Amino acid sequence: MGFRDRFYTPTTAKALLSWRILLGLGIGTAMAVAGLPIGVAIGVGVAIYAASVGAAMPDGVERANIDPFVLSEPWRQIMQQAQGAGRKLRSTVASADGGPLKTTLQGIADQLERGLAEAWAVAQRGDEIDDAVRRLDPTALRSKLATLQAQAAASPSLEHAAAIASVERQIATTDRLKAQSAETAASLQLTQTQLDELVARASEVRIGAVDTAAYQRDVDDLVIKLEALHQAVEETRTA
User: How much is the pLDDT for 69?
Assistant: First the structure.
């Protein structure tokens, strides 16, 4: 949330017209009575007032530093689509008239920013899993297994049996990782589709054609899904 959007909020308006006015006047008056030049005393009072209002303004939301191009597919494409949806939503909010509806839309947009950050974390983890599969090189492992099985058939031994069992376990590991990656990608792709739908509905919210509370709940549900997906993929680190 930029400074302008943080400024035009009910919270800031309330802070502007609060006891902070008396605080600034009191300190400025005290400075003048203490002997400071009137201009300096007024400046100190105004500065104290401005600082206290600034402290009361809503915090901005930190946007995740998303760079889809550091990812492999399908994660890159998913995050590019998510970024595009985020830009459309911000554009919709920016085009809304000022007032309570815009403030509500801005809050919803901030919530979706948190969702994008969760999606980014999921995509990074999915890319890590795919990288692990590539390093294990399942094609080479299956070729090695075929060679060992041929050797074991020609000359059975305990050593050949142990080597075959080891390669089979490595192949099983790559299969599990590939299944995790595919499942995660499918789940993230589904949330991306739902995000696109929410962004489209934001235009209806902007003109008052959709129940804002219901829309807010749908946004919250999507963010919760993304948080759960993030938590699930993080748990695979120690599974």
Answer: 96
Residue 162 DSSP class: H
Asked if 86 contacts 113 with a C-beta cutoff of 8 angstroms, the reply is yes
What's the whole-model pTM score? Answer: 0.70
Q: Please name which of 59, 55, 53, 61 lies closest in space to residue 13, comparing C-alpha atoms.
A: 53
CA-to-CA distance for 154 and 135, rounded, in angstroms? 30
C-alpha distance from residue 87 to each of 6, 195, 196, 199, 202 (Å): 19, 12, 11, 9, 12
Q: Mind listing the pLDDT tens digit for each residue in 37-69?
A: 888 778 777 877 777 777 666 665 567 789 999
CA 121 from chain center: how many Å?
Answer: 7
Phi, then psi, of 37 in degrees rounded to 5: -55, 145
Which helix (H) or strand (E) segment holds residue 186: the answer is: helix 158-206
Q: Is the dihedral of CA 19, 22, 28, 32 positive or negative?
A: negative
